Inverse folding.
Protein backbone atom coordinates (compact mmCIF):
# COMPACT_ATOMS: atom_id res chain seq x y z
CA UNK A 1 0.00 0.00 0.00
CA UNK A 2 1.32 3.40 -0.96
CA UNK A 3 4.23 1.78 -2.73
CA UNK A 4 6.43 3.64 -5.21
CA UNK A 5 8.30 1.18 -7.41
CA UNK A 6 6.00 -0.53 -9.93
CA UNK A 7 6.36 -4.26 -10.49
CA UNK A 8 3.02 -5.23 -12.00
CA UNK A 9 0.09 -3.84 -13.92
CA UNK A 10 -2.38 -1.40 -12.44
CA UNK A 11 -6.09 -2.24 -12.31
CA UNK A 12 -8.63 0.25 -11.05
CA UNK A 13 -11.77 -0.96 -9.28
CA UNK A 14 -13.72 -0.05 -6.16
CA UNK A 15 -12.14 3.39 -6.50
CA UNK A 16 -8.68 1.93 -5.83
CA UNK A 17 -5.56 1.30 -7.90
CA UNK A 18 -4.56 -2.32 -7.47
CA UNK A 19 -1.17 -3.55 -8.64
CA UNK A 20 -0.86 -7.22 -9.60
CA UNK A 21 0.57 -9.47 -12.30
CA UNK A 22 -1.86 -12.26 -13.16
CA UNK A 23 -0.40 -15.25 -15.00
CA UNK A 24 -3.34 -17.58 -15.53
CA UNK A 25 -6.35 -17.23 -17.87
CA UNK A 26 -9.23 -16.66 -15.44
CA UNK A 27 -7.70 -13.72 -13.58
CA UNK A 28 -6.10 -12.37 -16.78
CA UNK A 29 -9.49 -12.32 -18.52
CA UNK A 30 -11.53 -11.08 -15.60
CA UNK A 31 -9.11 -8.29 -14.70
CA UNK A 32 -8.48 -7.05 -18.27
CA UNK A 33 -11.47 -4.63 -18.33
CA UNK A 34 -10.12 -2.90 -15.21
CA UNK A 35 -6.58 -2.28 -16.47
CA UNK A 36 -5.31 1.29 -16.56
CA UNK A 37 -2.22 2.62 -18.27
CA UNK A 38 -0.01 5.51 -17.34
CA UNK A 39 2.06 6.41 -14.35
CA UNK A 40 -0.33 5.89 -11.46
CA UNK A 41 0.56 4.78 -7.96
CA UNK A 42 -0.90 1.68 -6.34
CA UNK A 43 -3.20 1.81 -3.32
CA UNK A 44 -2.98 -1.95 -2.95
CA UNK A 45 -0.16 -4.15 -4.20
CA UNK A 46 -0.85 -7.87 -4.46
CA UNK A 47 2.27 -9.97 -4.71
CA UNK A 48 2.20 -13.61 -5.81
CA UNK A 49 2.19 -16.08 -2.93
CA UNK A 50 5.55 -17.26 -1.61
CA UNK A 51 6.80 -19.93 -4.00
CA UNK A 52 4.32 -18.83 -6.67
CA UNK A 53 0.74 -19.85 -7.34
CA UNK A 54 1.98 -23.43 -7.88
CA UNK A 55 2.90 -23.58 -4.20
CA UNK A 56 -0.82 -23.40 -3.35
CA UNK A 57 -1.52 -26.79 -4.96
CA UNK A 58 -1.22 -28.70 -1.71
CA UNK A 59 -3.02 -26.15 0.47
CA UNK A 60 -6.28 -28.03 -0.05
CA UNK A 61 -6.85 -31.69 -0.89
CA UNK A 62 -7.32 -32.45 -4.56
CA UNK A 63 -7.62 -35.66 -6.62
CA UNK A 64 -4.32 -37.20 -7.76
CA UNK A 65 -5.31 -36.90 -11.42
CA UNK A 66 -6.32 -33.21 -11.20
CA UNK A 67 -5.52 -30.94 -14.15
CA UNK A 68 -2.70 -28.91 -12.59
CA UNK A 69 -2.97 -25.99 -15.01
CA UNK A 70 -6.64 -25.67 -14.14
CA UNK A 71 -5.90 -25.99 -10.42
CA UNK A 72 -3.27 -23.22 -10.63
CA UNK A 73 -5.72 -21.07 -12.56
CA UNK A 74 -8.41 -21.39 -9.89
CA UNK A 75 -5.90 -21.01 -7.06
CA UNK A 76 -4.50 -17.79 -8.51
CA UNK A 77 -7.99 -16.34 -8.90
CA UNK A 78 -9.02 -17.25 -5.35
CA UNK A 79 -5.72 -16.16 -3.81
CA UNK A 80 -5.71 -12.70 -5.38
CA UNK A 81 -9.37 -12.20 -4.49
CA UNK A 82 -8.67 -13.15 -0.88
CA UNK A 83 -5.73 -10.76 -0.61
CA UNK A 84 -7.69 -7.92 -2.24
CA UNK A 85 -10.68 -8.26 0.07
CA UNK A 86 -8.48 -8.32 3.18
CA UNK A 87 -6.60 -5.24 1.95
CA UNK A 88 -9.95 -3.55 1.26
CA UNK A 89 -10.56 -3.42 5.02
CA UNK A 90 -7.84 -0.74 5.19
CA UNK A 91 -9.85 1.43 2.78
CA UNK A 92 -13.23 1.58 4.55
CA UNK A 93 -14.39 -1.37 2.53
CA UNK A 94 -15.40 -4.99 2.81
CA UNK A 95 -16.46 -8.03 0.82
CA UNK A 96 -20.09 -9.05 0.80
CA UNK A 97 -20.81 -12.48 -0.64
CA UNK A 98 -23.88 -11.46 -2.60
CA UNK A 99 -25.39 -11.04 -6.03
CA UNK A 100 -25.64 -7.30 -6.69
CA UNK A 101 -28.11 -6.01 -9.26
CA UNK A 102 -27.98 -2.44 -10.54
CA UNK A 103 -31.23 -0.61 -11.23
CA UNK A 104 -31.95 3.08 -11.73
CA UNK A 105 -28.56 4.22 -10.44
CA UNK A 106 -28.50 2.10 -7.31
CA UNK A 107 -27.25 -1.33 -6.32
CA UNK A 108 -29.41 -3.90 -4.56
CA UNK A 109 -27.54 -6.75 -2.91
CA UNK A 110 -28.90 -10.20 -2.15
CA UNK A 111 -26.68 -12.12 0.24
CA UNK A 112 -26.86 -15.78 1.24
CA UNK A 113 -24.69 -18.89 1.49
CA UNK A 114 -23.76 -20.51 -1.83
CA UNK A 115 -26.56 -22.51 -3.42
CA UNK A 116 -29.43 -20.49 -1.93
CA UNK A 117 -30.35 -18.82 -5.22
CA UNK A 118 -28.93 -15.28 -5.04
CA UNK A 119 -28.14 -15.18 -8.75
CA UNK A 120 -31.44 -16.80 -9.68
CA UNK A 121 -33.22 -13.99 -7.82
CA UNK A 122 -31.22 -11.11 -9.31
CA UNK A 123 -31.66 -12.60 -12.79
CA UNK A 124 -35.39 -12.10 -12.29
CA UNK A 125 -34.71 -8.39 -11.71
CA UNK A 126 -32.62 -8.20 -14.87
CA UNK A 127 -35.36 -9.97 -16.87
CA UNK A 128 -38.17 -7.78 -15.54
CA UNK A 129 -36.58 -4.34 -15.34
CA UNK A 130 -35.37 -2.33 -18.33
CA UNK A 131 -31.81 -1.11 -17.75
CA UNK A 132 -31.12 -3.46 -14.85
CA UNK A 133 -27.84 -5.36 -14.95
CA UNK A 134 -25.68 -7.52 -12.69
CA UNK A 135 -23.07 -5.34 -10.99
CA UNK A 136 -21.25 -8.31 -9.48
CA UNK A 137 -22.79 -11.75 -9.26
CA UNK A 138 -20.93 -13.12 -6.25
CA UNK A 139 -18.39 -10.89 -4.52
CA UNK A 140 -19.15 -7.16 -4.78
CA UNK A 141 -16.88 -4.84 -2.81
CA UNK A 142 -18.60 -2.40 -0.46
CA UNK A 143 -16.95 0.94 0.22
CA UNK A 144 -17.90 3.78 2.52
CA UNK A 145 -17.26 7.19 1.02
CA UNK A 146 -18.45 10.27 2.93
CA UNK A 147 -21.02 8.21 4.82
CA UNK A 148 -22.50 6.59 1.72
CA UNK A 149 -22.04 2.87 1.04
CA UNK A 150 -21.18 2.00 -2.56
CA UNK A 151 -21.24 -1.41 -4.23
CA UNK A 152 -18.41 -1.97 -6.69
CA UNK A 153 -17.71 -4.37 -9.50
CA UNK A 154 -14.35 -6.17 -9.23
CA UNK A 155 -12.52 -8.85 -11.23
CA UNK A 156 -13.55 -11.22 -8.46
CA UNK A 157 -17.06 -12.62 -8.87
CA UNK A 158 -16.80 -16.30 -8.02
CA UNK A 159 -17.72 -18.83 -10.67
CA UNK A 160 -19.80 -16.24 -12.53
CA UNK A 161 -18.02 -13.90 -14.95
CA UNK A 162 -20.70 -11.23 -14.38
CA UNK A 163 -19.15 -8.09 -12.95
CA UNK A 164 -19.09 -4.54 -14.27
CA UNK A 165 -16.56 -1.89 -13.35
CA UNK A 166 -18.92 0.62 -11.79
CA UNK A 167 -19.51 1.94 -8.30
CA UNK A 168 -23.12 2.64 -7.32
CA UNK A 169 -24.71 3.74 -4.04
CA UNK A 170 -26.36 0.82 -2.27
CA UNK A 171 -30.16 0.97 -2.34
CA UNK A 172 -30.51 -1.98 0.01
CA UNK A 173 -28.93 -5.16 1.33
CA UNK A 174 -31.16 -8.19 1.64
CA UNK A 175 -30.41 -11.53 3.25
CA UNK A 176 -32.11 -14.24 1.29
CA UNK A 177 -33.61 -17.55 2.39
CA UNK A 178 -35.62 -20.06 0.45
CA UNK A 179 -39.24 -20.44 1.46
CA UNK A 180 -42.65 -21.57 0.25
CA UNK A 181 -44.14 -18.09 0.35
CA UNK A 182 -42.65 -14.76 -0.67
CA UNK A 183 -42.23 -12.39 2.24
CA UNK A 184 -39.86 -9.55 2.97
CA UNK A 185 -39.37 -7.38 6.01
CA UNK A 186 -37.07 -4.60 7.12
CA UNK A 187 -34.50 -5.75 9.71
CA UNK A 188 -32.23 -3.99 12.19
CA UNK A 189 -28.45 -3.83 12.03
CA UNK A 190 -28.31 -6.21 15.02
CA UNK A 191 -30.43 -8.81 13.24
CA UNK A 192 -28.43 -8.47 10.03
CA UNK A 193 -25.04 -8.59 11.73
CA UNK A 194 -24.51 -12.36 12.13
CA UNK A 195 -25.81 -12.95 8.59
CA UNK A 196 -23.55 -10.37 7.02
CA UNK A 197 -20.57 -11.50 9.09
CA UNK A 198 -21.21 -15.00 7.78
CA UNK A 199 -20.86 -13.72 4.20
CA UNK A 200 -17.66 -11.69 4.39
CA UNK A 201 -13.92 -12.15 4.86
CA UNK A 202 -13.37 -14.16 8.01
CA UNK A 203 -9.73 -15.26 7.92
CA UNK A 204 -8.19 -12.09 9.29
CA UNK A 205 -5.41 -11.14 11.67
CA UNK A 206 -6.16 -9.12 14.81
CA UNK A 207 -5.75 -5.61 13.27
CA UNK A 208 -7.85 -6.68 10.28
CA UNK A 209 -10.45 -8.12 12.64
CA UNK A 210 -10.73 -4.73 14.38
CA UNK A 211 -11.07 -3.05 10.99
CA UNK A 212 -13.68 -5.58 9.88
CA UNK A 213 -15.89 -4.94 12.91
CA UNK A 214 -15.48 -1.19 12.47
CA UNK A 215 -16.43 -1.31 8.77
CA UNK A 216 -19.30 -3.74 9.46
CA UNK A 217 -20.73 -1.42 12.09
CA UNK A 218 -20.62 1.61 9.82
CA UNK A 219 -21.90 -0.21 6.73
CA UNK A 220 -24.83 -1.76 8.63
CA UNK A 221 -25.62 1.64 10.12
CA UNK A 222 -25.71 3.31 6.70
CA UNK A 223 -27.77 0.97 4.49
CA UNK A 224 -31.36 -0.27 4.50
CA UNK A 225 -31.47 -3.92 5.51
CA UNK A 226 -34.01 -6.56 4.59
CA UNK A 227 -34.73 -10.22 5.10
CA UNK A 228 -36.43 -12.07 2.28
CA UNK A 229 -37.94 -15.54 2.19
CA UNK A 230 -38.87 -16.45 -1.31
CA UNK A 231 -39.45 -19.04 -3.96
CA UNK A 232 -38.26 -18.78 -7.53
CA UNK A 233 -39.78 -16.62 -10.27
CA UNK A 234 -41.31 -13.29 -11.13
CA UNK A 235 -43.50 -13.12 -8.01
CA UNK A 236 -40.45 -13.43 -5.77
CA UNK A 237 -38.85 -10.57 -7.67
CA UNK A 238 -41.99 -8.43 -7.32
CA UNK A 239 -41.87 -9.03 -3.57
CA UNK A 240 -38.31 -7.79 -3.08
CA UNK A 241 -38.58 -5.05 -5.71
CA UNK A 242 -41.72 -3.42 -4.32
CA UNK A 243 -40.25 -3.32 -0.79
CA UNK A 244 -36.69 -2.32 -1.65
CA UNK A 245 -37.35 0.12 -4.48
CA UNK A 246 -40.74 1.21 -3.23
CA UNK A 247 -42.76 0.83 -6.39
CA UNK A 248 -44.12 -1.82 -8.71
CA UNK A 249 -42.28 -2.97 -11.82
CA UNK A 250 -43.88 -2.26 -15.23
CA UNK B 1 -10.02 -17.76 34.67
CA UNK B 2 -9.64 -15.73 31.52
CA UNK B 3 -11.00 -15.41 27.99
CA UNK B 4 -9.21 -17.36 25.31
CA UNK B 5 -6.88 -15.35 23.09
CA UNK B 6 -7.39 -15.00 19.36
CA UNK B 7 -10.59 -12.97 19.36
CA UNK B 8 -11.50 -9.32 18.96
CA UNK B 9 -14.42 -7.69 20.70
CA UNK B 10 -16.51 -4.68 19.81
CA UNK B 11 -19.67 -3.08 21.12
CA UNK B 12 -21.81 -2.70 18.02
CA UNK B 13 -25.42 -1.53 17.53
CA UNK B 14 -26.18 -2.36 21.16
CA UNK B 15 -24.63 -5.83 21.08
CA UNK B 16 -21.23 -7.09 22.20
CA UNK B 17 -19.64 -8.92 19.31
CA UNK B 18 -16.72 -11.36 19.49
CA UNK B 19 -15.06 -12.70 16.35
CA UNK B 20 -12.02 -14.94 15.86
CA UNK B 21 -8.78 -13.59 14.38
CA UNK B 22 -5.43 -15.02 13.32
CA UNK B 23 -5.01 -18.79 13.59
CA UNK B 24 -8.29 -18.99 15.49
CA UNK B 25 -10.15 -17.61 12.45
CA UNK B 26 -9.09 -20.68 10.46
CA UNK B 27 -11.02 -23.14 12.61
CA UNK B 28 -13.54 -21.05 14.57
CA UNK B 29 -15.81 -19.47 11.98
CA UNK B 30 -18.76 -18.11 13.94
CA UNK B 31 -19.56 -14.83 15.60
CA UNK B 32 -20.50 -14.74 19.28
CA UNK B 33 -22.82 -12.06 20.58
CA UNK B 34 -22.85 -10.95 24.21
CA UNK B 35 -25.51 -9.14 26.23
CA UNK B 36 -24.62 -6.28 28.56
CA UNK B 37 -23.50 -8.49 31.45
CA UNK B 38 -21.63 -10.79 29.10
CA UNK B 39 -19.81 -7.85 27.54
CA UNK B 40 -18.91 -6.50 30.98
CA UNK B 41 -17.48 -9.84 32.06
CA UNK B 42 -15.71 -10.53 28.73
CA UNK B 43 -13.83 -7.25 28.94
CA UNK B 44 -12.67 -8.06 32.48
CA UNK B 45 -11.63 -11.58 31.47
CA UNK B 46 -9.03 -10.34 29.00
CA UNK B 47 -6.62 -10.81 31.89
CA UNK B 48 -6.52 -13.65 34.43
CA UNK B 49 -9.20 -12.95 37.01
CA UNK B 50 -10.83 -14.93 39.82
CA UNK B 51 -14.51 -15.76 40.16
CA UNK B 52 -14.62 -13.59 43.31
CA UNK B 53 -13.15 -10.60 41.48
CA UNK B 54 -15.77 -10.90 38.75
CA UNK B 55 -18.57 -11.21 41.31
CA UNK B 56 -17.31 -8.11 43.13
CA UNK B 57 -17.03 -6.17 39.85
CA UNK B 58 -20.63 -7.07 38.98
CA UNK B 59 -22.02 -6.06 42.37
CA UNK B 60 -20.14 -2.75 42.20
CA UNK B 61 -21.31 -1.95 38.68
CA UNK B 62 -24.88 -3.21 38.83
CA UNK B 63 -27.69 -3.26 41.36
CA UNK B 64 -27.26 -6.94 42.21
CA UNK B 65 -26.31 -9.06 45.22
CA UNK B 66 -23.34 -11.42 45.47
CA UNK B 67 -25.46 -14.56 45.15
CA UNK B 68 -27.13 -13.46 41.90
CA UNK B 69 -23.84 -12.13 40.53
CA UNK B 70 -22.17 -15.45 41.38
CA UNK B 71 -24.81 -17.32 39.39
CA UNK B 72 -24.34 -14.92 36.48
CA UNK B 73 -20.57 -15.45 36.50
CA UNK B 74 -20.93 -19.25 36.65
CA UNK B 75 -23.47 -19.27 33.84
CA UNK B 76 -21.29 -17.02 31.68
CA UNK B 77 -18.17 -19.10 32.31
CA UNK B 78 -20.12 -22.25 31.37
CA UNK B 79 -21.35 -20.59 28.19
CA UNK B 80 -17.81 -19.53 27.26
CA UNK B 81 -16.44 -23.00 27.96
CA UNK B 82 -19.14 -24.57 25.80
CA UNK B 83 -18.35 -22.16 22.96
CA UNK B 84 -14.61 -22.81 23.27
CA UNK B 85 -13.92 -19.25 24.39
CA UNK B 86 -12.52 -19.95 27.85
CA UNK B 87 -8.78 -20.39 28.33
CA UNK B 88 -8.43 -23.49 30.51
Amino acid sequence: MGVSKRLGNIYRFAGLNVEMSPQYPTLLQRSAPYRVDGDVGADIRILPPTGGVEALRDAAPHPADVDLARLDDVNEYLYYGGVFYRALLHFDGMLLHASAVAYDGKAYLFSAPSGTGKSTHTQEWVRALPGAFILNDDKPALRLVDGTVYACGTPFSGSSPLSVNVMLPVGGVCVLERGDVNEIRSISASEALPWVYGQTTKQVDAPEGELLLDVLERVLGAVRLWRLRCGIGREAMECSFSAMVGKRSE
Amino acid sequence: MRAKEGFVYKQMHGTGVVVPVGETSREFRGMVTLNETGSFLWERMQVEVTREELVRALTEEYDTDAETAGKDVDAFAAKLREAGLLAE
Remarks:
- Chain B has one domain: 2-87.
- Chain B has a mean pLDDT of 91.
